[in-house]
Design brief:
Layout (H helix, E strand, L loop, with lengths): L5 E5 L5 H19 L4 H11 L5 E6 L2 E10 L3 E9 L8 H15 L3 E7 L3 H9 L3 E5 L3 E5 L1
Parallel strand pairs: 4-5
Antiparallel strand pairs: 1-2, 2-3, 3-4, 5-7, 6-7
């Protein structure tokens, strides 16, 4: 697959349902394993925490296939979510997005921070491969930084 066709679009309030669908399609198995999946609870949580200003939709050939949610502070960049539709996982999209964030953070002398569910070993392996280090953990998540 040609990853040079990857582009970004700033999310708007109208993308609430789209981002929930992407989140459901990519995170549901992990959330089910940790907390259980209650559709109404997840919808309400997503709606309450939806901040389109922090979200860039990932487009491949103009098709919305995921999103990056990042919060910028003086000290660093917190990756709240990097979610890719299940059918598009494992082809290098996450690596490409993360590498561009790593480049941006380095050029601004900022640290990248994220949390990953312990049951999501695939994502943790990706972060470790790209140089993220474990900085802490709690019962359900690893806390990592680069």
């Amino acid at each position: 697959m040609d990853l040079s066709a990857l582009s970004y679009r700033q999310a708007t309030i109208a993308d609430l349902e789209l981002t929930f669908r992407i989140k459901s399609n990519s995170l549901r198995p992990y959330v089910e394993e940790v907390w259980g999946w209650d559709e109404n609870v997840q919808r309400q949580y997503h709606k309450k925490n939806f901040k389109p200003d922090n979200i860039k939709l990932l487009l491949l050939n103009n098709c919305e296939i995921g999103y990056l949610e990042a919060e910028y502070t003086e000290k660093g960049i917190y990756i709240a979510n990097l979610l890719v539709e299940h059918n598009f996982q494992g082809i290098g999209l996450g690596t490409k997005v993360l590498n561009s964030l790593i480049y941006e953070a380095n050029s601004k002398n900022k640290t990248l921070h994220l949390e990953v569910l312990k049951v999501n070993t695939r994502a943790k392996n990706l972060y470790e491969r790209l140089g993220f280090k474990l900085t802490g953990e709690n019962e359900k998540k690893f806390i990592m930084a680069k």
